[in-house]
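stage 2 :: seqdesign
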């Protein structure tokens, strides 16, 4: 056998038509033949060869010419002409420049966190990689979790070109391990750095952060950073918020922080900082807190700081000032420390060693809501009574352990006449008078139990020894049912109850004051038991009476048991929800009459109610088969009640009806005047003309409310069901988010989208939540983006009656985005004159929120900044329609 493979090598190297010759026992294959016949070889080879060449030429002639490769545009600016080390990448036929030091910086950070994952690195930080084509998060195909890039237009010698840079890093609760490397300082255009809630992320805060001159947000709270605060941070002239709270920082506060003229929030609480609070008059740099003229929030509590308070007179917008739990001392001259025109709402000086005159905080009587001066050493003789009655907005007053003499001067004739003490404090919710060695009477006769006051803490005093010897109030049962909690634990009067059982009060009333587990019932006398057994039941009347008594006693026992349980849960909290009686709710809603029904959602039916005092409420009847215990339910109610923001609907309290086979639960909210957003925008209910400034303000209000839920609420809350019907509008058309936190009241099996077994509403649900059940704050961001587009367009996100290309709002908007016709989605009822640019800006923010990849969506805090125009908007680069 012979072989001729590769005989026509040149022809075989081209993709031509294969010709197979079969002749007798001869098999010839172009570019590979074998033969067994002798005589016909020569003719067969010649025939096949020429036929193959003929086919090859014919195929080449008929084949279309290959398309020319697209021309690569020239670099607008040579890389060598730019200062430093630069490179360029081609995106959509345009060149984008980037600094190689940024690539090195991100790879350096990656190396520091490479062992960070609990399961796998890709689980904690998906997209973070050293793969060359994806090694920089701003590359076209890169997708680094929590990293956003900015595109900017630059000019070099009259030539315009585009640059890419890392602008934002946000990695919260990602279980990061290790530290923050100095290379972070090479991200020179970094605007925001948020690394929150990573308890194994520690080490020193790098001084090189001071090189990131564009930083406006630096948030490293709830980590394990140690060492001192770098003085180089004083170079960050654009910084608006610095939060290093809840770390392990030591050393003194550098005076250079006073150089940050735009700083609005400085939060350094819960560390181990020492030394004095810097002011410019005490250091050679002429820097200190007295130069922080833009400051609005200052929290330094729970450190080891010493010396006196700083001069904050230049901070004329100061809202929060908390210095509690330090070693601060000296006199407190309010006029010398604070600007009298600032709207100070929180002032906490408790648990320090301040001496001298009792602080005269009268200048803030119109703004203070939380004031705590307890556990200090103020001179009792300097107290002046009249100032207290002027604080009409005060919600919390802390006067614990301020000395018996000072309290005696504050009270009336040495008596604790709380009605007199609280006169004028019409908004007060919490009063702390614990640990003051109070020994005199407790006079509650003039106290307003129908007001907002819900807690009076008198624990750890010397009151008693018997209730009858000091308690002055005409109707104890009214106090018990009022919702006002009066705590008298660790007083002789409460101790004496358990020792001698002499109080004259019922178990519920004892518990109400002393907040302890009631004693076990006394054992019956044996003779009594015998008598009860042998007494014959001789008449039907007695039997009926006995049954009736038993039913009454059981109901009463269940009622008091529930009351004790509720009071115990509420007593653990500083903010106490109101417990409404079922009959009051029933009367307020006209026995839940259909005419009083104002809405129905996934969590229940909502009724309007009018209480006997004329105030309006909204009552939500929770519809659930949940087996959740009352304990758990009340705990969640307390948590939701503590969540307060002007863009959230206020939960006032709850109502429980248990027993007799009934298990009803109601939530009582403030009543909001102007319907919900769906009724106002889609249905034009009320006939209001909601113009563009009002609609943008609604978007901003929703964004602020969600920012509070995601970042400031404790615990943080993911709403899961942001939609137009859950946005209420008050009389000024300010947005208020409803139903937040309600997902916490239901088990996972209780859902209102059974298709996905998740909480949410069709059309608003983020893809990663709908398909994989992955829940994060970015789920709310996606829903917010859909809602923004609905507000702009004035229509629901799904409208089956419209043309097919417009039925689904997101698909329609993406189509118009690609065609540069975004204004076509705007509600025809809107007058867009002079607003076109602003409307396009808001639509782009909405599109940014509905990116299919969660990590590409901004946080709600960034959305607020973009809506306000305070932060450079990240360009929306759509590679392909994500839908």
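stage 2 :: out
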């Amino acid at each position: 056998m012979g072989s001729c493979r590769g005989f026509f090598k040149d022809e075989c190297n081209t993709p031509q038509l294969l010709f197979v010759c079969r002749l007798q026992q001869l098999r010839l294959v172009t570019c590979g033949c074998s033969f067994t016949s002798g005589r016909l070889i020569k003719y067969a080879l010649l025939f096949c060869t020429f036929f193959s060449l003929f086919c090859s030429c014919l195929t080449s002639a008929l084949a279309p010419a290959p398309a020319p490769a697209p021309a690569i545009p020239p670099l607008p600016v040579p890389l060598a002409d730019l200062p430093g080390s630069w490179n360029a990448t081609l995106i959509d036929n345009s060149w984008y420049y980037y600094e190689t030091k940024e690539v090195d910086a991100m790879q350096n950070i990656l190396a520091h966190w490479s062992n960070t994952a609990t399961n796998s690195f890709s689980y904690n930080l998906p997209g973070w990689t050293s793969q060359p084509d994806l090694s920089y998060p701003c590359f076209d195909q890169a997708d680094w979790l929590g990293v956003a890039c900015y595109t900017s237009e630059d000019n070099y010698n009259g030539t315009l070109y585009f640059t890419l840079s890392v602008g934002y890093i946000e990695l919260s609760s990602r279980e990061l391990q290790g530290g923050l490397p100095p290379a972070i300082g090479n991200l020179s255009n970094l605007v925001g750095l948020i690394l929150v809630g990573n308890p194994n992320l520690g080490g020193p805060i790098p001084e090189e952060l001071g090189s990131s001159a564009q930083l406006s947000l630096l948030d490293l709270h709830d980590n394990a950073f140690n060492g001192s605060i770098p003085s180089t941070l004083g170079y960050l002239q654009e910084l608006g918020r610095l939060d290093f709270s809840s770390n392990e920082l030591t050393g003194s506060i550098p005076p250079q922080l006073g150089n940050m003229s735009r700083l609005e929030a400085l939060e350094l609480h819960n560390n181990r900082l020492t030394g004095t609070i810097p002011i410019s008059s005490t250091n050679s740099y002429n820097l200190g807190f007295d130069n922080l003229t833009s400051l609005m929030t200052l929290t330094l509590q729970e450190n080891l700081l010493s010396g006196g308070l700083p001069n904050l007179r230049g901070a004329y917008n100061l809202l929060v000032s908390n210095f509690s739990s330090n070693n601060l001392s000296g006199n407190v001259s309010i006029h010398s420390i604070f600007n009298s025109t600032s709207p100070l709402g929180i002032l906490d000086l408790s648990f320090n060693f301040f001496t001298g005159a009792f602080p005269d905080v009268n200048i803030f009587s119109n703004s203070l809501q939380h004031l705590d001066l307890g556990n200090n050493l103020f001179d009792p003789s300097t107290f002046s009574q009249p100032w207290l009655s002027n604080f009409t907005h005060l919600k919390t007053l802390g006067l614990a352990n301020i000395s018996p003499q000072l309290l005696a001067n504050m009270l009336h004739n040495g008596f604790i006449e709380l009605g007199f003490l609280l006169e004028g404090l019409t908004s007060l919710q919490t009063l702390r008078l614990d640990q003051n060695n109070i020994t005199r009477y407790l006079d509650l006769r003039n106290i307003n139990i129908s007001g907002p006051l819900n807690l009076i803490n008198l624990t750890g005093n010397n009151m008693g020894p018997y209730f009858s010897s000091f308690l002055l109030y005409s109707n104890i049962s009214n106090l018990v049912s009022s919702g006002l909690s009066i705590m008298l634990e660790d007083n002789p009067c409460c101790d004496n109850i358990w020792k001698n059982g002499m109080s004259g009060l019922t178990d519920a009333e004892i518990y109400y004051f002393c907040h302890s587990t009631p004693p076990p019932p006394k054992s019956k006398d044996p003779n009594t038991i015998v008598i009860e057994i042998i007494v014959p039941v001789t008449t039907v009347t007695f039997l009926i009476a006995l049954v009736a008594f038993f039913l009454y006693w059981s109901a009463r026992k269940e009622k008091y048991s529930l009351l004790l349980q509720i009071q115990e849960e509420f007593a653990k909290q500083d903010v106490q929800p109101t417990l409404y009686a079922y009959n009051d709710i029933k009367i307020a809603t006209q026995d839940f009459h259909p005419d009083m029904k104002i809405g129905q959602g996934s969590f229940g039916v909502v009724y309007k109610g009018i209480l006997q005092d004329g105030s309006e409420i909204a009552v939500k009847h929770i519809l659930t088969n949940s087996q959740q215990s009352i304990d758990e339910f009340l705990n969640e109610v307390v948590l939701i009640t503590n969540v307060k923001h002007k863009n959230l609907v206020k939960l006032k309290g709850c109502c429980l009806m248990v027993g007799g086979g009934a298990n009803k639960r109601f939530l009582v909210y403030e009543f909001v005047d102007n319907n919900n957003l769906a009724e106002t925008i889609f249905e034009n209910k009320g006939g209001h003309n909601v113009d563009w400034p009002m609609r943008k303000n609604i978007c901003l209000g929703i964004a602020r409310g969600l920012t509070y839920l995601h970042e400031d609420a404790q615990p943080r809350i993911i709403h899961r069901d942001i939609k137009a019907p859950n946005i209420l509008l008050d009389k000024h058309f300010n947005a208020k988010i409803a139903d937040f936190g309600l997902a916490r009241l239901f088990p996972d099996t209780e859902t209102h989208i059974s298709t996905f077994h998740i909480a949410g509403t069709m059309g608003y649900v983020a893809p990663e939540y709908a398909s994989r059940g992955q829940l994060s704050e970015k789920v709310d961001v996606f829903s917010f983006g859909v809602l923004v587009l609905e507000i702009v367009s004035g229509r629901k996100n799904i409208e089956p009656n419209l043309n097919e290309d417009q039925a689904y709002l997101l698909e329609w908007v993406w189509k118009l985005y690609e065609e540069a016709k975004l204004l076509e989605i705007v509600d025809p009822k809107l007058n867009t004159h002079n607003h076109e640019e602003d409307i396009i800006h808001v639509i782009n923010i909405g599109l940014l929120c509905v990116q299919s990849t969660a990590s590409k969506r901004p946080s709600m805090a960034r959305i607020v900044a973009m809506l306000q125009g305070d932060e450079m908007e990240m360009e929306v680069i759509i590679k392909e329609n994500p839908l």
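stage 3 :: structure notes
- Residues 2-62 form one domain.
- The CA atoms of residues 55 and 61 lie 10 Å apart.
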